[in-house]
Write a structure and sequence with these properties.
Blueprint (H helix, E strand, L loop, with lengths): L2 H4 L1 H19 L6 H30 L5 H33 L2 H7 L5 H34 L6 H12 L1 H17 L3 H21 L14 H8 L12 H14 L2 H25 L1 H12 L23 H9 L4 H16 L1 H24 L6 H27 L10 H6 L3 H31 L4 H28 L8 H5 L2 H25 L6 H31 L4
């Protein structure tokens, strides 16, 4: 049996999905040319703007004689270390969804296709979904770094190849962790151990990030020693056993022209990627099949959520969750039922609340480090700059939440949307209810985040109220944008929310959200940041911001509701 005949099913799957992807690309010409042009200009604008920002930043760092190169090298080590952790978490979530909550996987398991072939295809699909954004985001930085170091032409193709090898390792680790977690996730002992491990990890992280004792004497003539004290908390990124260390060291050596050392670390990365990749794709087939059988043979999960269900013997009596919701939300019973249904679906989907925990965990790390940052704010300019950068950070996290979780809500109704549409509740009220739920939940999260971060930055209460009002307006605008575009560009054929967001509508929603946040933060910063003494400019900037927010939030939402009137089931 030849190698081609062994891998023929995998090649067939790759060919079918490549043809499908190409047809989706060609279908863009049937879309609105305005929307396609906006999307293309946004992508091109990001590449150009980020390349310019990275070039300016690297030039500024390199302007410090004797220290710029040290800072740049440590920055690259930190960057790839954090990206490795993010890739690992992303591959874990996407692999879990593709392997055990995907209709195509269930269908393929019933066909005479080797289980190793199914695992290999899902591995390729998960790795591509989790890694394309990493390559897209990191490309302008690496190009700017190569130009700042005056690297030879071979630096750019070599870096591209090293990045391709690098993304394999977190993909393999995410695949293995997804299979193991799916097999053990329903065990109470495993859940308790996982919760205790998370608490212990958070405690250890808080202890490790505690404020460094002792005062650094900046008058010391040994600047490298002082710099080493300042960067003592970043030494973990240079651990020799980290794959990010191999990639960073190889990239730095390529930029400096040390081809032999760069090739050595490249071969280290290649050997580990091929070794662990070969083991995973040839020995995890049986474990994947057994885990999939165990996952699909479990109950519907109601035993784990009995507090959400009516008690036995009560008939149609309301459960405890229904009674609790009735105390909070007044009004129609069908609206409360829809709210409870969406909350239950979200909570039962491990990938949904798992990604929420990851996102809020990163926000927690960001907030904990703000208290160390306030000691460096000595002038009013830097205080104003940091306050509006904090507003931008909170708004960008809000945009991530709305795009990732709010946009696909209408599409997740699936092909059974006609049941909801034919019900007395109606699709219009369904969409309005989803907007109210999303806006209320995200408003509670963003207001808490902006209040705590502003308090840690030692702002006055009038400033906290101002930024709280701004983030509240942004919350309603971004939720209206996400809900409206989700109705205008639905995808009822896909049950994976990650793939729904990766489509044309989700990408457009993310791009428009980022543009709205950028324009709003710049407008408010120059109008109300105190860079001039004219009150008229401040009032005008606030009015323009309110008008822009109303347009961004109301226009797509109204268009979506209008589209529901002509919606065909």
């Amino acid at each position: 049996m030849t190698v081609v005949s062994i891998h023929r099913p995998l090649l067939l799957l790759l060919r079918i999905h490549a043809i499908h992807a190409w047809r989706q690309v060609k279908s863009l010409r049937h879309q609105s040319r305005l929307l396609t042009g906006v999307l293309a200009l946004s992508v091109l604008g990001y590449l150009v703007l980020s390349f310019w920002i990275f070039s300016k930043g690297l030039r500024f760092v390199n302007s410090f004689p004797g220290l710029g190169m040290v800072l740049t090298d440590r920055l690259i080590y930190l960057l790839f270390a954090f990206l490795f952790a993010m890739l690992l978490l992303s591959n874990l979530v996407i692999s879990y969804t593709n392997l055990f909550q995907n209709r195509e996987t269930v269908f393929l398991l019933t066909l005479p296709v080797p289980r190793e072939t199914i695992l290999r295809w899902k591995f390729i699909e998960s790795a591509l979904l989790a890694s394309w954004a990493f390559v897209f985001l990191i490309a302008p930085f690496l190009a700017a770094f190569g130009l700042s170091r005056e690297a030879p032409w071979c630096f750019y193709p070599a870096t591209l190849g090293l990045t391709g090898l690098f993304v394999i390792l977190p993909a393999v680790a995410g695949l293995w962790l997804a299979i193991y977690l799916a097999r053990c996730l329903d065990r109470r002992s495993f859940q308790a151990a996982l919760a205790l491990s998370a608490i212990a990890a958070l405690g250890g992280l808080a202890w490790w990030w505690r404020k460094q004792s002792g005062i650094i004497e900046f008058t010391d003539t040994r600047m490298l020693d002082v710099l080493d004290q300042l960067l003592v908390k970043t030494r973990y990124a240079q651990a020799a056993w980290l794959p990010s260390h191999w990639l960073s060291t190889s990239v730095l050596h390529w930029a400096d022209g040390a081809v032999s050392a760069a090739a050595f670390f490249g071969l280290v990365l290649l050997s580990h990627s091929t070794f662990f990749g070969f083991i995973a794709l040839t020995r995890l087939g049986n474990a994947f099949y057994d885990t999939a059988s165990a996952v699909h043979s479990r109950g519907n999960g109601q035993s784990n959520w009995t507090w959400l269900m009516p008690r036995r013997g009560d008939g149609l009596a309301a459960g405890r969750a229904e009674r609790f919701l009735s105390l909070i939300v007044r009004g129609r019973f069908d609206v409360r039922a829809l709210l409870l249904k969406d909350a239950r679906v979200f909570w039962r989907d491990t990938t949904q609340w798992g990604q929420s925990v990851m996102l809020f965990g990163l926000l927690g790390v960001y907030i904990l480090n703000l208290r160390h940052f306030t000691h460096q704010l000595s002038g009013p300019f830097w205080i104003i700059l940091v306050s509006y950068l904090n507003l931008g950070a909170c708004a960008l996290n809000l945009a991530t939440l709305t795009t990732r979780f709010v946009y696909p809500q209408f599409s997740l109704e699936g092909r059974r949307v006609w049941l909801v549409g034919m019900a007395p509740l109606g699709l219009v009220r369904v969409v309005k209810t989803k907007f109210a739920l999303a806006a209320g939940a995200s408003l509670a999260a963003t207001l808490s985040l902006i209040t705590l971060s502003c308090w840690l930055l030692k702002m006055s209460w009038d400033q906290i109220l101002f930024f709280g009002a701004v983030i509240a307006v942004m919350t309603f605008a971004l939720n209206g944008l996400a809900v409206g575009l989700g109705v205008l560009y639905p995808n009822f054929k896909e049950c994976n929310s990650s793939k729904i967001v990766s489509g044309f509508g989700g990408t457009l929603c993310l791009v428009l959200s980022f543009v709205y946040i950028l324009v709003s933060v710049l407008l408010l910063a120059f109008g109300t940041g105190g860079f001039h003494g004219r009150t008229l400019w401040g009032v005008l900037s606030v009015l323009v911001f309110l008008g822009l927010s109303v347009f961004v939030g109301v226009a797509p939402f109204k268009l979506g509701l209008r589209a529901l009137k002509d919606f065909e089931f």
